[in-house]
Amino acid sequence: MINHLAIIGVGLIGSSLSLSLKQSGYVKRVTGCGRSEDNLKKGVELGVLDDYQLNISEAIKGTDVVVVAVPLGAMSSVFQQMQSSLDESTVVTDVGSAKATVLRDAHRSLGEFFPQFVPGHPIAGSENSGVEAGVASLYQNRKIILTPEQDTSQSAVAIIDKMWRQTGAEVEMMSVEHHDRVLAATSHLPHMLAFSLVSHLSKMSDQDEIFNYAAGGFRDFTRIASSDPVMWRDICMANGDALLELIEGFKNELSEIAKAIEHKDSEALFELFRDSKHTRDQLRDL
Amino acid sequence: MINHLAIIGVGLIGSSLSLSLKQSGYVKRVTGCGRSEDNLKKGVELGVLDDYQLNISEAIKGTDVVVVAVPLGAMSSVFQQMQSSLDESTVVTDVGSAKATVLRDAHRSLGEFFPQFVPGHPIAGSENSGVEAGVASLYQNRKIILTPEQDTSQSAVAIIDKMWRQTGAEVEMMSVEHHDRVLAATSHLPHMLAFSLVSHLSKMSDQDEIFNYAAGGFRDFTRIASSDPVMWRDICMANGDALLELIEGFKNELSEIAKAIEHKDSEALFELFRDSKHTRDQLRDL
Hey, are the CB atoms on A257 and B237 less than 8 Å from each other? Predict the structure, then answer.
C-alpha cells in the first residue's frame, strides 16, 4: 500500500500506472508534476491525479514513492530539482527506455540519496502519448525490468517491485548493459526502421498516392512511427552505441537480401524467409 | 452473377473470394484446382468449394471466370496448362502481387486468348495462409487494382470489376509499371525489412531472451515476417528491380539516422521523427 505517490511527467506511462493503482486501491493519493498546467488539470479531471504541483520539490515532499516519467533528456534536470527536498524514506524510480544514462544522471544528481533510486522500465506503451492515452490495463501481463546497482537499497527495490506487481505486470531484474542491448534490438531498432521507412516513402514523388495503397501490413509495420519524437530523439542520444551496432548489422542483413535479389538467388531468399517465418511464428505463442 | 467460377490455387486469397461471392449469392458453383488434394478436400468441407479437379484443363472447362491465385513463380506453368482447353467466353484473372512478369507470362502462354486475361491484384491479405485462413470479409473496403493492357477486352475487364465490387472492394485501374512501383514501396520493401529484422535478431547470441522482451510494437512490426516464404521469394524474383531501388534508398535513409546518432545531432533526429510521425498520423484517418 502506498500512501502518497508523486508522478513527475504525467503522460501515457505515468497516468496508466496511477489509474491501475487507484483502481486496485493500492495508492491513497497521487500528486502530479509537470511543465504543462493544462495537462495536469486534465489529469485531475480524468481522475488520474488527486492534485498537482508545478514545482518538483513541492510535489515530492512527504511522498512514499516518486515515479519519474519524463523523456530521457529531462532526467538529469529532474533529479537535480529533487535532490534538496527528498526525504530519506522516499523511494524514487523511473520508467526510462534506456538505463545507462539514467543511472549516470541519478549518480551525479541524487548524491547520498542514490541508494533510494530504483531504475526501472515497463516494456509497455503504445504509439499514443499524453495523459488522455492512459489506461489502467496497460501493464497487465507485461514485463517490468528493474536494473538495480550494487548499492541500491534492497528495501527500495522491494517497494517498487511490489508496486508494479499490483498492476498485473511481471517484474524481472537485469543488468543495465543487458537491458540496453536487448531493448536496442527489440524496440529501438524497429522504431528506427519504421521512422526511416515512412521518411523515405514520403520523399518519393508520388507520395500521396503511395500511402493510398497502404494495406494492413504496412499499417501494422509503421504504426510505431507515430510515436513521440522527443522520446525517441532522447532514446537515440542515450542508447546510441548499442543502436549503431544494430543498425550496422541490420544493414548488412538487408544487403544480403539485395544481393540475392540481384543474383536471382531464389534458394537463398526462400531459406531466409522460411527461417524468419519460423522464428516469428514461435513468437505468436509467447 | 457468375454461373461457374474456377479457382486455381486455393489459399487465403482464393478461398476468401469464394466465401464472399457465395455469401452474397453472386456465384453458383466454385471449382477448385491445386496440387494438394488434401487442401482441396478441406476446401469442400469448409464450404469454400463445391467440387475440385487436380487437372487444370478439366477444372476450367465451361467456366465463366477463372481466378489464378498461385505464387508468381507458378503463373507461367498454369497459363500453359490452361491454353488448350480455355473457352473463348471464359474470362481469366489473377491476384499476383507484381504485375509485369504475370503479363509477360500471360502474353507468352495464353496466345490468342490474351485479351480475355485481366491482370488484377487485391490489396488485402494477412500473414496467415491456406484455405482455412479464408474469410468472407477480407475484401471489404479494400482496394483491388486492375492493370489491363491496350488489347485487354473491355467486357472482360467489366466482368472482373463487377466480381470484385461484389466483395465490398473498391476497384481501381493502374498501369503495370505504376502498380509495381507503388507495391514495391508499400508492401514489398516493408516485408523485406521485417524478414531482415527477424533474421538479424535471431543470429544474436542472446536470441531467446531477446524475443522474450518483445513488446507490442515489435509484434506489430514483425507480424508480416510470418508470411508465406514461397510467395515472397517469387515476389522478389518478379519485382526485383523496383525493390532493389527502394532497398538502396531505404539504406541511405537509415544511414542518415545512424550519422545523426553518431554525431549526437539531436535536432536532425527530432526533425526526422517529427516529420515521420506527422506523415504516419495522417494515415490513421484514411
Answer: no
Distance (Å, whole) CA B59 – CA A201: 42
**Are A168 and A219 in a shared domain?**
no
Q: Give the pLDDT confidence score for residue A210 in this predicted structure.
A: 82
pTM reported for the whole predicted model: 0.88
> Does the predicted interface ipTM exceed a cut of 0.85?
yes
Place of cell 509503421: A222
B145 and B275 co-located in one domain: no
pLDDT band at A254 (very low <50, low <70, confident <90, very high): very high
Write down the pLDDT at residue B64.
Answer: 98
CB spacing of A228 vs B264 below 8 angstroms: no
Asked if A236 and B269 come within 8 Å (Cβ–Cβ), the reply is yes
8 A C-beta contact, residue A16 and residue A36: no
- Domain carrying residue A42: 2-174
CATH number of the domain within which A95 lies = 3.40.50.720
User: What's the gap in Å between the CA of A268 and the closest CA on chain B?
Assistant: 9
| A163 and A199 share one domain | no
Say whether both A59 and A156 belong to one domain. Answer: yes
Distance from CA of A29 to the nearest CA of B (A): 30
Task: Using the 3D structure, point to which of B150, B174, B198 is the last residue of a domain.
Answer: B174
Subunit contact A257:B189, Cβ cutoff 8 A: no
Q: What residue type is A66 in one-letter code?
A: V
Q: Output the DSSP codes for B19-50.
A: HHHHHTT-EEEEEEE-S-HHHHHHHHHTTS-S
Cell numbers at A74, concatenated: 529531462
Q: Which one of A199, A210, A227 makes the best mutation probe of the B interface by having the most chain B beta carbons within 10 Å? A: A199
Q: How far apart are CA B57 and CA A231, in angstroms?
A: 60
Q: What are B37-49's pLDDT values in tens digits?
A: 999 999 999 999 9
**Per-residue confidence at B207, pLDDT binned at 50, 70, 90?**
low
Alpha-carbon distance B229 to nearest alpha carbon in chain A (angstroms):
5
Answer whether A251 sits within 8 Å of B248, measured CB to CB.
Answer: no
Let me know whether A203 and A136 are in one domain: no
Q: pLDDT per residue over B132-146, tens digit each?
A: 999 999 999 999 999
Verify whether the Cβ–Cβ distance B274 to A229 is below 8 Å: yes
